Amino acid sequence: MAGRLLLVLRLLVRDLRRRRTETVLLLVAITTATATLTLGLALNELVTRPYEQTRAATAAPDLVMEPGITGPEALAALAPVATAPGVTGHSGPYPLVFKMLTARDLTVRVVVEGRDAAPAVLDRPAVTDGTWVRPGGVVLEGAFADALGVHSGDTVSIDGHPLRVAGTAVTAARPTYPNVGWHLPSSILHEAGGLVWVDRSDIATLAGTQPLTYTLNLKLADPQAGLSVFGPEQRNPRFRGWHIRTGQQVAEVNSRLNKKAQEALLVGSWLLTVLALAGVAGIVAGRIIGQRRRVGLLKAVGAGPAMIAAVHLAEYLVIGLASAGVGLTVGWFAAPPLFRPTAGLIGSTGLHPPLRVVLAATALALGIAVAATLVPVVRAAATTTIHTLADAATPPRRRRWVIWLSRRLPTALLIGVRINARRPRRARLITVNTLVSAATLAAVLMAQVQDYTPVPLGYSTLPDRREERIIQAILLIAVVACLLALLNTIVSTWTAVLDARQPLAVARALGATPGQAGTGLAIAQLLPAIPGVAAGIPVGIGLVLVLSNGDLRYAPASWMLAMALGVLLAIAVLTAIPAIAAARRPVADTLQSTPT
C-alpha cells in the first residue's frame, strides 16, 4: 500500500511540474468557477440580509405609532400606549414636522424628526458618515443623501432655514427613501419623500406655524403581534387615522427596492456559473486528451482502473482544493465593493462565509475533480490498451454532401472545420461561452436605452434607485461575464493549440502554409462562436423583458450588430495570435512522439 501511495505521489509531482502551463490554467479556471459561485451566493446575502443587519445594528422597534392628531392631543394619545400590556420598552415620543428641503437647486419633500444627542433605547440610527445631530445641524438618511448628492459639510435649508449637514445615518424604523411616509398633518395619504434628523431644540423653529405631530417606538414581548397587542383594532377607535408601521411592513417595503436587482443577480449568477464551468470543462478536456496515452501506459504496466483513478484523482484533488480556498476568499470579499444594495441600509457579508457557502464552493471544486477523473477511468475500463496508446481522436462522421462541400472550401476554412469535427465537445463549449457573453452584453444595451421614471418629490424629482440598482446589477454581471469569457477564450485557444499541433503539422506536410494552418485554427474557434452570438442576443433581450416593470424600449439594431461583430472580432484577435505562433513550429519537431 505504501508503495502505491508513493507511486501516486511521484506521478502527481511529475505531472504538475511537466505540465506547468496547463496546471496554472486549470488552477485559474477552477478558482474562477468557485469564486463565481461564491460571488453569486455573497451577492444574494447582500440583497436579502441588509434589513435584518440594519435592524440589529440600530435596535429597531417592533411597532412605530404616529397619531392622526397633532400637538398636546397627540402626546396625550401616546401616553397610555407606552405602558400597555405586551409593550416591554419604548423610545420617544419624538416630534415630527413635514416640510420641504432645498439642496443643490432641488426642493423636495422631507420628514423632519427631532432627536436627542444621547443614544435612544430603541431606534438608534447608525451614523455612516460624519456625526449625529447637534444644534444647527441636520443628519440625512443615507439613501436620501445619496440621491440628493449631499455629503457631510454641505449646507441645506428646510423651509428657508439653513442647516449644515452633520452626517448621514441609516434606520430600520422607517422604510428607506423614497418610501419614508411623508404626509400632510392629519392626512392619511402618503407621498414620496426623504427623512432627516435634527436636534430636538431646533424642531420648533423649523416647524414655524405648522403643528407638530409625534412618533413613538415600541418594543413588544411578541414582535409578530403588531397592533394586535392592543386587542382587535375595531375595539380601539382612537387608532383610526393613525400612521402605524410594524417591523414586518418596513421589511416588506424595503425588500421591493432590491427585488428586481436580486432577480437580475440570481439569473446572472447562474449564467456566470455556467460560463465558469464551460471554461473548466475546456481545460479539463484538454488535459484528458493529453493523458490518454498515459492511461494506456499505466494499463500496459499492469495498473487497473482503481490505480488509474487514484493517479488522476490525486492530481485534480490537489488543484481543486487549492482553487476552492482561493476562489472562496476572492468571491466572498469581492461582493461588498462590487454591489451596494442601498445606501439606506447596512449591507455586509461578514468576515467569515457561512458553512453552506463553504460547502458549496468545496463541493464544486471536488465535483470537478471527480468529473475529470471519471472520464479517463471509464475509458480505461472500456478501451483496450492498444487503442488507448494510439490516442485516436473522435472520427468525424463522413457524409457525401459534407465531403463534396469540403472539396470546395478554402484551405484555412477546411482546416478549421476539420479541427471542430475532431473535437465537437470543445466547439459546443465555445458556443456556450459566446452565448452567455452576448446575452449579458445585449442585456446591458437594452438597460441603457430604457426611460426610467424619476421619483416626484414635490417641486423636484430625483432618480429612482430601484432602476439604478437593476442597471448596476446588470453591469456587474456583464463585467464579470466579459472577464470570464476572455479567460475561457484564452483557455480554449490554448487547449486547441496543444491538441491540434500534430493535425496542423500533417496539414503543413501535405502542402498547407503556416499562415493557412494558423488561420484554420483561428477559424475553428470562430465558427462555433457565430451561432452563440446569434442566440445570445435574443436571450439577453428576454432576460430584460423578464426583469422589466412595464413598457420596454428596444436597443437599436445597429447597436446589437456592432456588439455581435465586436464579440466575434475579439475572439478572432485572441485566437489568431497564438494560433499563428503555434503553426510556425517546425513540422519535424511537432511530429515527434510527445513524452508521457
List the helices and strands and how they pair.
Blueprint: H1 2-18, H2 20-48, H3 50-57, E1 63-66, H4 71-78, E2 87-103, E3 106-115, E4 126-130, E5 137-141, H5 142-148, E6 155-158, E7 161-170, E8 194-199, H6 203-207, E9 213-220, E10 243-246, H7 247-290, H8 292-300, H9 305-338, H10 355-382, H11 385-390, H12 400-407, H13 411-422, H14 424-448, E11 455-456, E12 461-462, H15 465-499, H16 501-509, H17 514-526, H18 529-547, H19 557-583, H20 587-591
Parallel strand pairs: 3-8, 5-7
Antiparallel strand pairs: 1-9, 1-10, 2-3, 2-6, 2-9, 4-7, 5-8, 6-7, 11-12
Helix pairs in contact: 1-9, 2-7, 2-9, 2-10, 2-15, 7-10, 7-14, 7-15, 9-10, 13-14, 13-17, 14-15, 14-18, 14-19, 15-19, 16-17, 17-19, 18-19
The end-to-end span amounts to 24 Å
Shape: elongated
- β-strand percent reads 5-15%
Helical residue percent? 55-70%
Instruction: Identify the strand order in the major beta sheet.
Output: 2-3-8-5-7-6
Number of strands: 12
Structural class: alpha+beta
Unreliable stretches (pLDDT < 50, length at least 5) are none
- The overall average pLDDT, rounded, is 76
Q: Report the radius of gyration as a whole number of Å.
A: 32 Å
Query: What does the largest sheet look like?
Result: 6 strands, mixed, barrel
Domain module tally: 3
* Tally of helical segments: 20
Quick structural gist:
The protein is an alpha+beta fold. The chain is 58% helix and 13% strand.
